[in-house]
Amino acid sequence: MSEPTDQATFERANRLFFRLYQCANLLHKNGTRALDAFGTTTQQWAVIGALARPQVRAEGMTVKDLMAYLMVSRQNLSAVLDRLETRDWLERVRDVADGRSRRVRLTESGIANWTAMQAPIAAFYAASLNHLTGADQSEFATLLERLRKGLDAA
Amino acid sequence: MSEPTDQATFERANRLFFRLYQCANLLHKNGTRALDAFGTTTQQWAVIGALARPQVRAEGMTVKDLMAYLMVSRQNLSAVLDRLETRDWLERVRDVADGRSRRVRLTESGIANWTAMQAPIAAFYAASLNHLTGADQSEFATLLERLRKGLDAA
DNA sequence: GCCATTCTGTCAATGCATTGACAGAGATCG
DNA sequence: CGATCTCTGTCAATGCATTGACAGAATGGC
């Protein structure tokens, strides 16, 4: 094996990012379609999923922490939270410890809907990961995490 | 090694898709930032990159083929093409073989800008892939391709 | 020639995502 | 107490992305 040329290195990276771009679009499109019955997008799915975690469910998360967790802007997150709050899936309550913060918490209705969404989500996962073994998926997640670190620094 | 439980399988998939979601957002944000000097987004970058390929550059691509290649909707692509056309980076010319089609082709200005963009793009690639070896990247691209097939079917 | 199909474009609605700027309320520190 | 910083929310602009619906022009089959 000889050293790859700069050109080959560039094209390899190009292929990688192009496929990432395609997968991201497909995730949004088909993920949202999978949750069509709930009128829920992948972004809302991510927000609810974050709030439904066992260690979070009871007390909720501050907006700041949710921003950091999802890595989206405050203005963007605010709009998504507004939509979910309007539907009564979550509520924003003042933090007793710090009056500036608001804790975002799933309502009972939100938890019920999240529970109901598990079946179509599992089906979506199964169909999407059809060509990937369990080991592939673990490796995949590791590579994504390394890429995330690099993208964060870039 | 025992068989993984359904719960573990679900959580592995969950982690995978969440990281994909994060990487996609970071790609858009930081990729666009890398091309800030050109006022070009990652989406426009993808379009120009498709049209700049050697086998395409001379004759251009039809809108239909570009849609299939990028896997985006006609209405979305149309707006992106409008912006690039306004900046005189590309042109839409009638296909001589089929009057319904229009061939989208880079202008000289578009090609010049694409050439100038190569350096910042290479720098972005290098920084983003800092934690990934060449072998990692090849493996990564393969996994993304398998996921794309699954997502397409889902 | 006529009809159906294809290719493209547009209009409208909705939602995601960024940035910059401004504001108010609460916390913190001197 | 007063200045500063933090957390949140909002307004505005821009761009990406989807869907559904309608329209016009060109092609192809019969």
Q: Could you explain how this protein is built, in words?
A:
- Two copies of one chain form a homodimer.
- Chain A is mainly α.
- The first copy, chain A, has a domain at 35-127: Arc Repressor Mutant, subunit A (Orthogonal Bundle), CATH 1.10.10.
- Helix content of chain A is 69%, strand content 8%.
- Chain A has seven helices and three strands, in the order H-H-H-E-H-H-E-E-H-H.
- In chain A, strand 2 and strand 3 (102-106) form a beta hairpin.
- Chain A is globular and about 60 Å long.
- The structure holds a DNA duplex (30 and 30 nucleotides).
Q: Which value, in Å, is the CA radius of gyration of chain A?
A: 19 Å
Oligomer: homodimer
> How would you describe the shape of chain A?
globular
CATH topology of the domain at 35-127 in chain A: Arc Repressor Mutant, subunit A
Quickly give the structural class of chain A. mainly alpha
The span between the termini of chain A is: 30 Å
- CATH homologous superfamily heading of the domain at 35-127 in chain A: Winged helix-like DNA-binding domain superfamily/Winged helix DNA-binding domain
Can you tell me the residue ranges of chain A where pLDDT is under 50 for at least 5 consecutive residues? none
Order of helices and strands of chain A: HHHEHHEEHH
What spatial order of strands do you see in the largest sheet of chain A? 1-3-2
Q: What's the helix count of chain A?
A: 7
